[in-house]
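Data card: per-record layout.
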Amino acid sequence: MSKATKAITDYKKALGQPDGVAELMIFYCEQAAGFIDSIALEDETYFDALITMFEHVLVMIATLPLKKSSHIAVG
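The structure for this 75-residue chain is written out next.
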């Protein structure tokens, strides 16, 4: 999880595009959820971190102008 958040932070620092960061965070959440499901992981700490990231991306999307947030696919 920490490597993924570092990659997202590095991307954010390098480009500073909130819509791109949101897209990357959503992609990570989708991949992590699939991973959790595929191995039947029951690590509550990992799951809580994933939920926290998804909550952050939802807040981020809510602050984007409609034009920018309309192309971001959640789910």
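Known properties of this structure: The two ends are 20 Å apart (CA to CA). Residues 18-39 form the longest helix (22 residues).

See the next section for split statistics.
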